[in-house]
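The protein record quoted for completeness.
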Amino acid sequence: MKENVDVAIIMGSDSDLSIMKDAAKFLEDMGISYEMTILSVHRCPDAAFDYAKSLKDRKVKVIIAGAGGAAHLPGVFAAQVPCPVIGVPIMSKTLNGVDSLYSIVQMPSGIPVATVAINGAKNAGILAATIISTANEEVYKKICDYKASMNTAVLDKNEKLQKIGYEAYLNDMK
């Protein structure tokens, strides 16, 4: 556990790491400090509750919690820590992540969890950075630059499409 981090990335299983790494990569690109933890509120509830208390004590600014199946992890942390929680529904084998999505998005009144798309860890990282940017001018500028780069990329692709036509464009994509 790091002393001072802005974002805690939590996942219920190591099988979620291949998805949750996208949030970490985006935070790294933005220069935002984070830590990653594997905890299950079902399999090790005492450790999960202790970790939640540590996040509250350390005044972590945002939690990104990825979970599949029953997906209680984001809600359990939202109930205990007074900071924004972003839930990442992880695709499951049984119901393709819809079960995870419903579990995370349908929180009771008073326990909000912002929820991104199934396997949408990068968007969770972007949302966490955007939240932090409201009180951090350096991160704000980086978010603005990131959005401007997306704008440029799309306009450049459209210019290419208009110039060479869809068939040549599709061939270039191969």
Remarks:
- Helices lie at 17-30, 45-57, 73-80, 98-105, 121-133, 137-173.
